[in-house]
């Protein structure tokens, strides 16, 4: 499925649940009666942005490799799918991931702000990856630790925008809550280290903005210091 098609599904989902007040209220009624209201905002410029990005190459997907010269290796979604077809891979067209669950096994675990993380796991204790670093720092560290068989983060990789959209709706269905609502006192913006805007030297970030009552897909520079809590959520691909 294209990223644009998934975004349209997210728009429909948010409008539907706003209208019936299922977990997304309170909200002024004029919003769901006003067809001009868009419950999704995506970073977009004349040079590029999210629209059609997975097709036209503006958005590339991380192959989870990082070499000694500090260079990333990326591929278009269409290239990845073509390679799977060529290799007769039975998972072609699917991206199945495991994420850490939230409280009582429901929803998706939030991204802890700096200093609020916990360590879980008995056989292999795994500390939370907390907010507070740049996109580049997170990405480089994630790739290094994911290849270390002795690391509690072994085989973990970064989320894609497509992952975040499905996770957001899943989280709401299971908990009634809003994932990555960074304007509260606990949540953070999710930097999606599994993808990169090819021409800009930055990575996408997604979150819920309770001021505007909409989901956001933004651009975060590799080395930009953020004025708001930003972190990563890892996935394990199966």
Q: How much of the residues is beta strand, in percent? A: 15-25%
For the record, the count of structural domains works out to: 1
SSE string: HHEEEHEEHEEEHEHEEEEEE
Oligomer: single chain
The 3D shape can be described as globular
Major sheet attributes: 5 strands, mixed
Number of helices: 6
- Strand tally: 15
Helix content: 25-40%
Strands in their spatial order, largest beta sheet: 1-13-12-10-14
Using only CA atoms, what is the Rg? 18 Å
The CA-CA distance between the termini, in Å, is: 19 Å
Mean pLDDT: 84
Which stretches of 5+ consecutive residues score pLDDT under 50?
65-69
What structural class is derived from the secondary structure elements?
alpha+beta
Describe what you observe in this structure.
- With 238 residues, the chain is of the alpha+beta class.
- The protein has one domain.
- It has helices at 3-19, 29-33, 53-56, 77-86, 135-146, 161-175; strands at 40-42, 44-45, 48-49, 59-66, 72-75, 97-98, 119-120, 126-127, 157-158, 189-191, 195-197, 202-209, 214-221, 230-231, 234-237.
- The chain has a five-stranded mixed sheet with strand order 1-13-12-10-14.
- It is globular, with a radius of gyration of 18 Å.
- The chain starts with a helix and ends with a strand.
- Residues 65-69 have low confidence and may be disordered.
């Amino acid at each position: 499925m294209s990223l644009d098609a998934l975004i349209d599904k997210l728009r429909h989902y948010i409008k539907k649940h706003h209208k019936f007040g299922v977990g997304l209220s309170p909200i002024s009624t004029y919003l769901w009666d006003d067809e001009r209201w868009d419950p999704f905002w995506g970073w977009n410029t004349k040079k590029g942005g999210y629209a059609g990005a997975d097709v036209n190459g503006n958005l590339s997907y991380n192959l989870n490799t990082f070499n000694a010269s500090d260079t990333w290796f990326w591929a278009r979604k269409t290239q990845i799918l073509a390679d799977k077809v060529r290799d007769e891979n039975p998972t072609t067209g699917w991206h199945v991931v495991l994420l850490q669950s939230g409280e009582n096994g429901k929803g998706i675990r939030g991204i802890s702000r700096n200093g609020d993380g916990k360590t879980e796991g008995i056989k292999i204790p795994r500390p939370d990856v907390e907010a507070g670093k740049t996109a580049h720092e997170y990405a480089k560290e994630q790739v290094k630790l994911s290849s270390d068989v002795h690391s509690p983060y072994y085989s973990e990789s970064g989320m894609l925008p497509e992952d975040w959209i499905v996770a957001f709706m899943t989280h709401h269905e299971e908990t009634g809550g809003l994932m990555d609502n960074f304007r509260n006192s606990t949540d953070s913006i999710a930097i999606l280290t599994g993808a990169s805007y090819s021409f800009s030297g930055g990575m996408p970030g997604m979150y819920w903005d309770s001021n505007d009552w909409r989901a956001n897909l933004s651009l975060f520079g590799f080395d930009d210091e953020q004025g708001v809590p930003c972190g990563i959520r890892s996935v394990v691909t199966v």
